[in-house]
Write a structure and sequence with these properties.
The complex is a heterodimer of chains A (134) and B (372).
Chain A (H helix, E strand, L loop, with lengths): L11 H20 L3 H9 L9 H17 L3 H7 L5 H14 L2 H18 L1 H9 L6
Helix pairs in contact in A: 1-2, 1-3, 2-3, 5-6, 5-7
Chain B lengths: L2 E6 L7 E3 L5 E4 L5 E8 L2 E9 L5 E6 L5 E6 L4 E7 L2 E7 L7 E6 L5 E6 L4 E7 L4 E7 L7 E6 L5 E6 L4 E5 L23 E5 L6 E6 L5 E6 L3 E6 L6 E6 L5 E8 L2 E6 L5 E5 L5 E6 L14 H12 L24 E7 L9 E6 L3 E6 L5
Antiparallel strand pairs in B: 1-28, 2-3, 3-4, 4-5, 6-7, 7-8, 8-9, 10-11, 11-12, 12-13, 14-15, 15-16, 16-17, 18-19, 19-20, 20-21, 22-23, 23-24, 24-25, 26-27, 27-28
The chains are: A mainly alpha (134), B mainly beta (372).
GO cellular component, one term (chain B): Arp2/3 protein complex
Subcellular location (chain B): Cytoplasm, Cytoskeleton
Keywords (chain B): Actin-binding, Cytoplasm, Cytoskeleton, Repeat, WD repeat
């Protein structure tokens, strides 16, 4: 029952490489008009087991790109696995924290539907977890 | 299946406990007193007021066989009350705490009780006949924050605790002269007092309401992140299940049987959890059938106004389903349920009735029907 170990600095290189790979995959999925696939790819493997803020920011940029590309929120939920709900909620709050109008508009739109689907418990988990932050 | 009795005793209740024959209930009405009410026919009447504490009484437990009430308070003290004729006589227990006491529970044999405190310690108190007083032994190590809840294992030695540092721990409380070294104890090599048997690091947030199953095989506790954790075989090879709740967090739980758990908390409605044949736990339903009418907001009257304002920022039209947040939810409890207590008939292995008390000042008695 020990806490899962966080990645140390030597493995940051590996994380950065993974993020770059993800970014390329997401760009290609968006070009093929598959925004939901892109979002799934972005959310996979998050939250990262690292405390390094630069890695988190790098992943956020990639997730943000995928979130902003979503046009049909209902269609997104019909193909997004519930295991991603808690992570998505954390990223929505990160988006809302930016204060940027288009980002907040999009995040609020998704937040409304996500709360309907996942319930208040999802919000609680994103707020209460101060260890696995995005 | 719903509530069989609802009593409004005060504006707010912190904790409650029943007398051995369940004719009287003792509770703290969010002040320094403990009120004891007795049911005369259909009416509840106050028969005793226990006034000794200086601050809020945070925990009450009433022992079934020895008929003793133990109370703990934010004033860092504990009293054991004995009934002599028609009076309750207090005996001070010097806990040696420098912070508030938060919870208390008699052990199954009723020769010890455990107190969790804000001083990051657990006090195990036992009676010393020679000096006619209660002695407190402290478990000082391991906890990094307030101990919110304590639970005794059926073997009278192991104690589980939850803390606001997010962890659930199991300790041995073996005291020489009070406990006997039985071969039944599973971890007989760790019988030293204060020895930590296990530490469960499942929740990243505050943990509350730890309880053992009747056999002691399963341990369950609630996390403030709207999760409930079930752990099997704590002593040997712990295996945990994390059940995510859809709604608000729980504050206290109760094992009705090996496979049925009731959780209570901020949803103001008891939640039922069961384990199937493979041992997989899941949420079944809310106990209280009275739900909000479907025409009102999707999120429940408490939050709809807030959500309406939040989503109204991005949309030009305000959500037309907004209702006032002060409308009562239509269930037995109107505010957070903070305490759940079993009402066992002597000889029953399964709990069929239990009571809940909450911040709305009500004590509600629930009965489970046959098919559970």
């Amino acid at each position: 029952m020990a806490t899962e170990g966080f990645v140390d600095d030597e493995n940051l290189e590996a994380i950065v490489t993974r993020i770059e790979q993800k970014s390329r995959k997401i760009e290609s999925l968006l070009k093929q008009s598959k925004p939901v696939e892109a979002l799934k790819t972005a959310l996979e493997g998050s939250p990262l087991k690292t405390r390094d803020e630069r890695c988190k920011s790098a992943i956020w940029i990639v997730v943000h790109r995928a979130i902003m590309a979503i046009k049909d929120v209902d269609a997104m939920f019909s193909s997004l696995d519930p295991e991603y709900y808690d992570t998505l909620m954390k990223y929505l709050y990160r988006g809302l924290a930016t204060g940027d109008r288009p980002t907040c508009d999009q995040c609020l739109k998704i937040h409304e539907k996500l709360t309907e689907k996942a319930g208040l418990g999802c919000i609680l988990r994103s707020l209460a977890d101060t260890v696995n932050t995005v | 299946m719903a509530a069989v009795a609802i009593h409004q005793f005060a504006q707010c209740i912190t904790c409650h406990a029943w007398s051995p024959d369940q004719s009287m209930v003792a509770f703290c009405p969010n002040n320094h007193e403990v009120h004891i009410y007795k049911l005369f026919g259909e009416k509840w009447e106050r028969v005793h007021v226990l006034q000794k504490h200086d601050q809020i009484v945070s925990g009450i437990d009433w022992s079934v066989r020895s008929n003793k009430i133990v109370t703990v308070s934010h004033d860092r003290n504990s009293y054991v009350w004995n009934q002599e004729a028609s009076e309750w006589v207090p005996t001070l227990v010097i806990l040696r705490l420098n912070r508030a006491a938060l919870c208390v529970q008699w052990c199954p044999k009723e020769n010890k009780f455990a107190v969790g405190s804000g001083a990051k310690t657990v006090c195990i108190c036992y009676y010393e006949k020679e000096n006619n007083w209660w002695v407190s032994k402290l478990i000082r190590k391991k906890h990094n924050s307030s101990v919110t809840s304590v639970a005794w294992h059926p073997n009278n030695i192991l104690l589980a605790t939850t803390s606001t540092d997010g962890k659930c721990r199991v300790f041995s409380t073996f005291i020489k002269g009070v406990d006997s070294r039985e071969s039944g104890a599973s971890s007989s090599s760790n019988l030293k007092f204060g020895e930590q048997i296990a530490q469960l690091d499942l929740s990243f947030t505050w943990a509350f309401g730890v309880r053992w199953s009747p056999s002691g095989n399963t341990l369950a506790y609630a996390g403030h992140n709207s999760m409930i954790y079930f752990i099997e075989d704590v002593g040997s090879s712990p295996s945990a299940q994390n059940v995510a709740l859809r709604d608000l967090p729980l504050r206290d739980i109760l094992f009705v049987s090996e496979k049925l758990v009731i959780g209570v908390g901020f949803d103001c409605n008891p939640m039922v959890f069961t384990a199937d044949e493979t041992g997989l736990w899941s949420f079944v339903k809310f106990l209280d059938e009275k739900k909000i009418a479907p025409s009102s907001s999707k999120y429940g009257s408490q939050f709809s106004e807030a959500f309406g304002k939040l989503y109204g920022q991005s949309k030009p039209a305000i959500n037309s389903d907004t209702v006032e947040s002060s409308r009562p939810r239509g269930g037995a409890h109107e505010n957070c349920i903070s305490c759940i207590v079993p009402l066992r008939k002597p000889g029953d292995t399964i709990v069929r009735r239990f009571s809940t008390s909450g911040l709305d000042g009500k004590v509600v008695i629930w009965e489970l029907d046959g098919h559970h």
